[in-house]
Write a structure and sequence with these properties.
The chain has a domain of 211 residues: NAD(P)-binding Rossmann-like Domain (Rossmann fold, 3-Layer(aba) Sandwich). By secondary structure, it is α/β, with parallel strands linked by helices. Helix 8 crosses helix 10. The chain has eleven helices and eleven strands. Helix content is 43%, strand content 15%. The strands form three sheets. It has a six-stranded parallel beta sheet, sandwiched between helices. The chain has a three-stranded mixed beta sheet with strand order 6-8-10. It has a two-stranded parallel sheet with strand order 7-11. The structure holds guanosine-5'-diphosphate-beta-L-fucopyranose. The site of guanosine-5'-diphosphate-beta-L-fucopyranose has 25 residues, from helix 3, helix 6 and strand 7.
Length: 314
């Protein structure tokens, strides 16, 4: 178990996942947290990361820092998604090993699994088939991070574990119209249409793909749970089991917000992988399960977001 006064470094604490992990740790009474913004510490800079780890010597590390985005961002900034995420993973994991971090949790994504993997996807399906092209760079970087954890466990006995979450949403999400993920993007477009009496909202693709969603507070709870209780090198899936088509997600948000308009499908935009439902049997067998349903989670985000600020920023 993490000692209450243990020094815990949360890489990426300003992001949606990192900030949720910090909230969860504080709620559980962990206050010896080391937090650095990307301006204070560029995790792609090996020298800077080495100096940081030699100075701070954290006991536990959550690797929640990454360059992330939705299908359009992944497919547009392919080099950045590969390079940035490779460097972040390599630097943080290697320097954690050099200073003898007690335990590290690396966060990947469900997009590491093959595009047409059998559903639901088990951890052992990794590398059994080609990846979804739109996010292959990001997936390769995350697979490299996961393999770093696994090989440092094998060769050095490092207690470095990795978790593969499904699509996430929640507070501090990215609502940018182009670089965001689908749930915040649709929530923003529908709320804007509702406030401005716009009768149709654009959905990218066919609306047919299925996606599983997990609220980031549930993810944070699972990450702390795994840091406390998980002692195996095999990466582990974190999902909700709640799957919905993109079209039905739009209608769910329409129902929650009371939007009266309708939708049209821009099939010039890619669908991406048809489905990526995680098999979370291993996590369930450890005794963890999510608490926030998709409807209540979306409603909570919709009510808590500062929409005026988002619409002003364009
Ligand atoms: O969430 P999303 O961008 O990423 O797209 P992925 C999910 C589905 O929603 C795709 C559709 O079929 C999109 O075409 N979609 C419909 C929209 N309207 C919109 C919209 O307005 N914005 C967006 N963004 N999508 C990502 C990976 O894949 O999943 C990342 O690229 C990461 O690397 C993330 O793994 C969790 O779920 O397709």
């Amino acid at each position: 178990m993490m000692e209450k006064d243990a020094k815990i470094y949360v890489a990426g604490h300003r992001g949606m996942v990192g900030s949720a992990i910090v909230r969860r740790l504080k709620a559980l009474g962990y206050h010896n947290l080391v937090l650095k913004t990307s301006k204070e510490l560029d995790l792609r800079d090996q020298r800077a990361v080495r100096a940081f780890f030699e100075k701070e010597q954290p006991d536990y590390v959550f690797v929640a820092a990454a360059k992330v985005g939705g299908i359009w961002a992944n497919n547009t900034y392919r080099a950045e998604f590969l390079y940035d995420n490779l460097m972040i993973a390599a630097n943080v994991i290697h320097e954690s090993y050099r200073v003898g971090v007690k335990k590290l949790l690396f966060l990947g994504s469900s997009c590491i699994y093959p595009k047409h993997a059998p559903q639901p996807m088990k951890e052992e399906y990794l590398l059994t088939g080609p990846l979804e092209p739109t996010n292959e760079p990001y997936a390769i970087a995350k697979i490299a991070g996961l393999k770093l954890c696994e090989t440092y466990w094998d060769q050095y006995g490092a207690r470095f574990i990795s978790a593969m979450p499904t699509n996430l949403y929640g507070p501090n999400d990215n609502f940018d119209l182009k670089t965001s993920h689908v749930l915040p993007a649709l929530l923003r477009k529908i709320e804007y249409a509702r406030r401005n009496d716009i009768d149709k909202v654009e959905i990218w693709g066919t609306g047919k793909p299925l996606r599983e969603f997990l609220h980031v507070d549930d993810l944070a709870d699972a990450c702390v749970f795994l840091m406390q209780h998980y002692e195996e090198k095999m990466w582990i899936n974190i999902g909700s089991g709640e799957e919905i088509s993109i079209r039905d997600l739009a209608y769910l948000i329409k129902d929650i917000t009371g939007y009266q308009g309708d939708f049209y499908f821009n099939t010039d935009m890619p669908d991406g992988t048809p489905r990526k439902l995680l098999d979370c049997t291993r996590l369930q067998n450890l005794g963890w399960k999510p608490r926030i349903s998709l409807r209540e989670g979306i409603e909570q985000v919709w009510r808590s977001v500062d929409w005026d600020a988002i619409f002003e920023n364009g």
